[in-house]
Specification:
The protein has 403 residues and is an alpha/beta fold. The protein has two domains: 309 residues, no CATH class; 74 residues, no CATH class. 33% of the residues lie in helices and 18% in strands. It contains eleven helices and 15 strands. Helix 2 runs parallel beside helix 6 and helix 5 runs parallel beside helix 7. The chain starts with a helix and ends with a strand.
Amino acid sequence: MNLKIRIVTLALPIVLASCAAYGPYRPNTSAEPLNSVRGPADGRYKLAFIEFGDQGSALDTSQRSAALEVIHEAKRPLLFVYIHGWQNNAESGDVCRFEHFIDTVSRYPEITGRKLNVIGVYVAWRGLDVTLPVAKFLTFWSRKSTGYTIAAQNACLATLSELALAARAPDKTYHHCVLLGHSFGGLVLENTISHSILDASSTGRRNTSPWDMAVAFNAADSSISSRQLMSELDYLYKYDPKRHAYVGRSPGAEAGSVVNENRPFLIILQSENDMATGEFFPIGTGLFNIVNLRAHWDKVPIPGKNGQKVSESEFYDHTPGNDKYLVNYHVVLQGETTPPSGLQATENRAFEANIKVNHPDYTFYTSEHNDGHENPFCRNGDYNPDEIRPPTGREIWRRWQFV
């Protein structure tokens, strides 16, 4: 008995010590009213933090006010709002990687020449709540559930809408707002904005979202909400090849409502070699179904398949980017190529090449190896905007196409 007591006595402090702090990690105080905002001395970009708790409430309401003030002060805002995923929070390596991204964007001649104000907003939540090396991987179910809770509450959608509306205020001479989500952050993003996408006004017209683009990378969400969203959009719109647009049907959307084919409501990008969503996610959801004795599944129609139905478990067990019934584009390698002339960037030069020219054939460049060369710079949330990062020297230029 004494041995058991000693084991419990030793284990309890270890478990408690492995719990990540609740936050907020970047609170504003009377002494530091802008602690949630940072950036380089030359002002080429600004980064703001907004943190949410497990129940979807803002941990510090002044963080949103501080972020909005940054946007209000910008005359030509280029706004990126990023929601991180599993195993991250407001002081993890994802902070460094996102800040490096907006720093890189702010240096491109296409940005500096147009005098754009690059702004990043890092939307944080407790994607990391246990730091014990093995135990933290068992938080899959609790963190997935927390992501759904945050998306279901009001604060996240209100925050995204307010940020996007501030960026397109009437006094702006330029504005662009891009929403980004990764992993469980993609889950939060999709489930937060999906109801907004389907919203309608009292005049019968479909409401347009205040953001310009929403992109989820390797979204760790079941495909159920994606299938429902695609089915509803199929009901509301039909494609008009002459107008290269989706036109509203009747009933549903008002006749004549037009959505340009190059302005999708939501983009979900999926890496084929992402093990977290491709392999671990189906295992995690399968175990959940067994434990909860979930055996019955309805048959639901596949979007765009003329009423063909399959078990809804097909969508529950797979993420949107790994669901064979929902993927409507593939990225196909067109071969190796050479970099375009006139590039000035020293790293990730393909990004500069892509923003210089918008290719009508849906092609784009890549140039960097995804070999983890950023990892030595981004072990935590610290970032030095004045640090010089030498080129990797391992460029391989390739051209790809969406087909």
